[in-house]
Amino acid sequence: MSDKISCPVCPHHCSLADNQTGICGARIARNGQVVPVDDGILSAIHVDPIEKKPLNHYLPGAGALSLGSFGCNLKCKGCQNDSISQVPVCRARGFKLTPEQIISEAGHHHCPVIAYTYNEPIIWAEFVQKTAAAAHAHGLKNVMVTAGYVAPESRDSLFEHIDAANVDLKGFTEDFYRSWANASLKPVLETLEYLHRKPGFWLEITTLLIPGINDDPDSLKAEFDWIAQKLGPDVPVHLSAFHPAHRAMDIPRTPVETILMAKDLAVQSGLHYIYPGNVPVPSDTRCPGCTNIVIRRFGFQTEISGMQEGICSHCGQKIAGVWN
Ligand code: SF4
Predict the structure, then answer these.
(1) pLDDT of residue 321
(2) Which end of the chain is more exposed for a tag (fewer CB within 10 A), N or C?
(3) Per CATH, the architecture of 39-282 is what?
(4) Quick one: average pLDDT of 168-192?
């Protein structure tokens, strides 16, 4: 009989001997269970505008008390946050707060939302779940920024207390996911469909466009067509520019023209809300019915200028989102 134990959290399903750590560097086998290496260790806590997650259609202008830990179950060559995501917990220098202290910080900073972000939250799920449950008990909302590389059997518990998410859809081929991120595409698409079906849940998607790696127009068009068909045209899609980082310092920044090309393809696929990220391009929210600007955006600042209660003031069309 094998004395190894399989971690149920993500599709890697690491098979671990006692005291062995998984690919993510955040979970370890101890006494017949796979548990966090150091439950509740944090790398950062900041107040961010919710638009920075990015979530553009969820409580605009809200402050999100944002938490991060260490490690990641993906190994993206161009990781944009490698100083925490690619650091195993056993080598991390972090700090601890209790869920109650975090709730209290949120109140102190007038944040109606707690965001689990900066590194992959599913790998420190126990602390996320405890904190998110406490946040709900205090009337706060919980949002997650995740790569969506989640095992099907863990989805219900991981997202039980989460109200909204921005999911990274990093590319649209299995080859890309395998060679760039040591992961696979199919479970991410399944997570997106799962979250889209979850009652009352708000979903947005981010794709980081990496020059010469995942910016092929055919693959982008296939991605946008899939989103339109499977999730519908109202899911906001953020198209972000890459900057050289981690093990991809030889890849240049994404040109603005690439972001605009991708935006055109997304429009052709029928998507209603497409947002350029990390480039100096306007990212106002426009009504898909009449193109009236309903939310003006200045960096991460917003001004609701053309809608009331989620209805376009000019033509009366419903603007998809959670507005209050
Ligand atoms: S969460 Fe970590 S330990 Fe668990 S299967 Fe994924 S990479 Fe392995």
Answers:
(1) 98
(2) N
(3) Alpha-Beta Barrel (3.20)
(4) 98
Which residue's alpha carbon is at the smallest distance from atom 3 of ligand 1?
22
Q: Name residue 12's amino acid.
A: H
Chain position carrying tokens 């979970």: 27
**H-helix or E-strand containing 100?**
helix 99-108
**Ligand 1 pocket, residues with Cβ under 6 angstroms:** 7, 9-10, 12-14, 22-24, 27, 34, 73, 123
Per-residue pLDDT averaged across 128-136, rounded? 98
Q: Could you identify the atom of ligand 1 that is nearest to the CA of residue 73?
A: 7
The sign of the torsion formed by the CA atoms of 84, 210, 149, 270 equals positive
One-letter amino acid for residue 132 of the chain: A
Q: Report the pLDDT averaged over residues 116-123.
A: 98
Residue 183 C-beta-side C-alpha neighbours within 13 Å: 28
Q: In the predicted model, is pLDDT for residue 101 greater than 80?
A: yes
Expressed in angstroms and rounded, the spacing between residue 139 Cα and the centre of ligand 1 is 31
Q: Which tokens in the block code for residue 148? A: 């969506």
- Ligand 1 atom with the shortest distance to the CA of 123: 1
Where do the CATH 3.20.20.70 domains begin and end in the chain? 39-282
* Residue showing tokens 């949120």: 106
In 3D, which of 43, 46, 5 has the Cα closest to residue 27?
5
The alpha-helical segments, DSSP class H, found in 139-228 are 155-158, 174-181, 185-197, 217-226
Residues 6+ apart with CB under 8 A from 251: 78, 210, 211, 212, 213, 242, 244
The reported pLDDT for the residue numbered 2 is 63
Report how far residue 52's alpha carbon sits from residue 55's, in angstroms, rounded to the nearest whole number: 7
Compute, in angstroms, the gap from residue 16 CA to the centroid of ligand 1: 10
Distance, in Å, from the CA atom of 45 to the CA atom of 108, rounded to the nearest integer, reads 13
